[in-house]
Write a structure and sequence with these properties.
The chain is an alpha+beta fold. It has one domain. The chain is built from four helices and five strands. The protein has helices at residues 5-19, 71-88, 129-132, 135-147; strands at 33-38, 44-48, 54-59, 101-106, 112-119. A hairpin with a 5-residue loop joins β2 (44-48) and β3. The longest helix has 18 residues, at 71-88.
Amino acid sequence: MKFSEQSKASVIACIKEAVSRYINDEMDEMVTDIHMQSKQDTGELVVYNDEDEELARTIVEDWVDYPGEDFEMESERILKHVLKGLNSEKYFDQLKIMKPYSFVLVDDDYETLSELLLIDDEETMLIDEGLMKGLDEDLNQFLADLLK
């Protein structure tokens, strides 16, 4: 998927608009996730809070009527890249949200598809499927060996 500078700027502006309400001290809101939804048919990026209230919305021109079947995977990759860039610039450090919280990609039913970025005070390792693959079998074998 091509992703122009204009589309990147649009995504960044949408994210900043969505989290801007958490910059001042007046907000006393418990947030555990910031939900992001990308829509292939309209090219929209919509950001919601935990209560599924819309925080920001934009049209990402490169997403409008994207013909590929890999839209979710590509939009996830792009959003991760943009969020990691904002995080490395320490943009999220100014937010008055109790840590840890996450940016997550959700589907039309607000079900989590993927965790895009975890913001935490400590160095936290995200556990993915590759790391966890076969763990149950290994633990069961360890327990069986231990009980022998």
